[in-house]
Amino acid sequence: MSQEPSETLLFPYRVLDLTDEKGFLCGKILGDMGADVVKIEPPGGDPSRRIGPFYKDIPDPEKSLYWFAYNTSKRGITLNIETADGRELFKRLVGRADLVIESSPPGTMEGLGLGYAVLRELNPGLILTSITPYGQDGPYRDYKGADIVCWALGGMAFLCGDPDRAPLQVSFPQSYLHAAAEAAAASNLALYHRKNTGEGQHIDVSAQACVPWCTMNALEFWPLNRSIITRAGPYRHRPAVNARDRQIWPCKDGYVHFLMMGGIVADYMTRLVAWMDEEGAADEYIKEIKWAEFDMAYLPQSVYDALEEPIGKFFMRYTMKELYEEAVRRRVQLYPVCNAREIVESPQLEARNFWQEVEHPELKTTITYPGAFLKVTGAKCGISRRAPLIGEHNEEIFCGELGLKREELVLLRQAGVI
Amino acid sequence: MAKQVFEGIKIADFAWVAVGPRSTQYLSEHGATVVRIESGTHPETLRMAAPYKDNKAGVNRTAFFARYNTNKYGVTLNLNHPRAREVAHRFIKWADIVSEAYPPGRMKRWGLAYEDLVKIKPDIIMFSACNQGQTGPHASQPGYGVQLTSLAGFTNLTGWPGRTPGGLYGAYTDFVSPHFIAASLAAALEYRARTGKGLYIDNSQYECGAQFLSPVLLDYLVNGRIWKAMGNRHPYAAPHGIYRCRGKDGWAAIAVFTDEEWEGFCRATDEPPWTQDPRFQSFVGRKENEDELDCLVETWTSQFDPEEVMTMMQREGVAAGIAAKNKDVYEDPQLKHRHHFWEMEHSEIGSIPWEGPSFILSKTPAQLTKPAPCIGEDNHYVYTELLGLSDEEFVQLMNEGVLE
User: Fold this and answer.
1) A54, β-bridge pairs
2) Of the residues A63, A397, B141, B390, which has the fewest C-beta atoms closer than 10 A?
3) pLDDT tens, residue by residue, B283-300
């Protein structure tokens, strides 16, 4: 866990993180890359600390696992930027920072006298990254945002779920995570630009605009074919022939993901049929198919059905684990439909030392976290410290860096500034 | 036009399918010179998958490939040809960044692993995009983001209680990794400018995917709890869902988190008697009676078009939006305002809107100027102008089948 700071990608940079749950992950990514990220919370702690789940199910602002997960590698201070004293302190911090990330409704920062135009005066190279549901400008600018709403407006919901029920979100909502991770990418683009030119800028990230990028190939069916792609549950919708083929298959104790394919990428279909044949489960029809010449895209439903029957019966004989182990051995594109336990028990993630032990002295324990998002050779990347406690680094930053005296800290505390 | 962020940066993009090309696209949209290196002897998966222009298959007719390769050049090079290595080495000498997404070990067989590349160019930045990373017992299992979406836990969390999971469309994890890779590539270029050092990035879609479910994984690691799909329910909002509206497959999402928003919801619905039901006047009451509440919400929404529901709710400060079909996404007034789509004429696909970035840089906004290349479209320009081969060398390589 210890790392030489100078060996990290973003070692020289200071980030002030004003975000709520729409942007936590942005600062975490920059922090895991080595930037010095200071999370700024309102006095008493960020309201997002109320988001569960909680450590040992104790609903306490210092025990939110949501907060833990997305605020690693940050230090934390409290500061009420809605007070005049708070704003002054914030401006002093801005003078020493490279990046400010925020996720308040458009116009909020300007309303506080802390808009990009003001911050740029204080620090001409400053990069301000704003993350909002819809963007800084435009007809939805002042609309209320929610993760499920961005997911729906961006076109993903309509593609997800069973055809006889409502469009679906992921039960752990995703739109804001895309926005926050996108904001990290955009911030680094701007940092590189600044490295070359000295110029800072304002970045406008829209969660809604992140979602169409998740729709894979669904959008262009409209301009090219005037086809609307609809949700097909465990099946895949084939609009050209109005047919569907199965993707999620029940097995003995759960589900597996298996996609039938033809053409030159379909060599694994031959290996699946050989496997079925060894177990006496391949019928004559499936054995005779020449997969390399088999074009899956334009088949009638009857062919998909004829394939689904023997394959489906075969999978039902085995457990997820049995099917996956044999699929790995035979290089067949079959994967288990995992839950959290199965991910945590993955031999692959273990072999790559993915999980990272992070000390929580305040809880007198160590918690296992999902580790680095990328393995980087030549520069370190990963969690450098657990998420901050409320105001944990107030003294370190206000006194140590800004030179405030302890008495001033007490005064500001009483005035509700920190 | 303002100087672009990555003007002068050169990328030899050996990657294919979605995650690699989508990652380098962040740079091509912002001024980098990106060359997609393919082979006509083995066209990549996305060139052979729908949607095709007029439903007619063809490697240059699919938007599936084209959407991830805007602003890039396209060349062909048959890496299995004995002379291909010398050409590949010229790309390495030329490039700042090299990307690839082959099964682990393939680049090494071609003499193009990171340790080979640094001998040619010590400060090269390289990334490998792969389902499960370059190492480990499952590294070589073939697959796409489509199945990784299940391995990484997303499929299980998309569905209705008591039903088969699996409603999550497409190769979802392919669209999680690129944020992280693009963030790292930009940081790596900055790092190289500062330290003179290159680096190597090993991407596992599984490991990037886990970042988007971290609290769910921590809940198991700490509390032993396993999350299950819960439709459109949300732990601290009610009503929260996607409700049937008037019209064919018309739906709108509504999310009510606070009492204030509930009051706004009641005003938006013109306060039918059920909204005054005492059970619905507190969050806990709404949560405990959510099945009934959802049915009642739908009796109201089904009288209106999705757009009407959205407007009426938003007017009263309640988060709401239509469940956009593909055609609706192109018509969305907010995305239009942001110029999210760029109309460009592709020589075989024709003129259609192509997606631009989800963020806008105030000083150096993206410029989309070139639709995706047809296979080998830029061979002459790239090999002679960018790599500096003479016309004779180019013709000779072509005749020998190296550039197929």
Assistant:
1) A64
2) B390
3) 999 999 999 999 999 999
Contact list, A372 vs chain B (CB under 8 Å): 207
Better-predicted residue by pLDDT, A300 or A184: A184
pTM for the model? 0.98
The pLDDT of residue B54 is above 70? yes
pLDDT for B217 beyond 50: yes
Q: What CATH class does A5-213+347-414 carry?
A: alpha beta
The backbone torsions φ and ψ at residue A347, rounded to the nearest 5 degrees and listed phi first, read -65, -30
Contact by Cβ (8 Å): B36, B74? yes
Residues of A in contact with B65 (CB under 8 A): none
- Whole-number pLDDT of residue A3: 46
Q: Test B207 with A352 for CB contact under 8 angstroms.
A: yes
Compute CA distances A60 → A25, A66, A233, B287, whole Å.
Answer: 21, 12, 38, 21
CA gap B299, B44 in Å, rounded? 48
Q: How far is B126 from chain A (nearest CA, A)?
A: 10
Cα separation of B16 and B48, whole Å?
12
Distance (Å, whole) CA A198 – CA B3: 13
Give the count of beta carbons closer than 10 Å to the beta carbon of residue B385.
10
Structural domain boundaries of chain A?
5-213+347-414, 234-250+255-336
Per-state percent for chain A, helix, strand, coil, to nearest 5? 40, 15, 45
What does the alpha-carbon distance between residue A129 and residue A206 come to, in Å, rounded to a whole number? 11
Which residue among A53, A161, A263 places its CB closest to the CB of B219?
A53
pLDDT tens profile A333-357: 999 999 999 999 999 999 999 999 9
Residue A15, phi then psi, degrees to nearest 5: -120, 130
Kindly name the residue from B54, B96, B123, B174 that is annotated as catalytic.
B174
B123 is catalytic: no
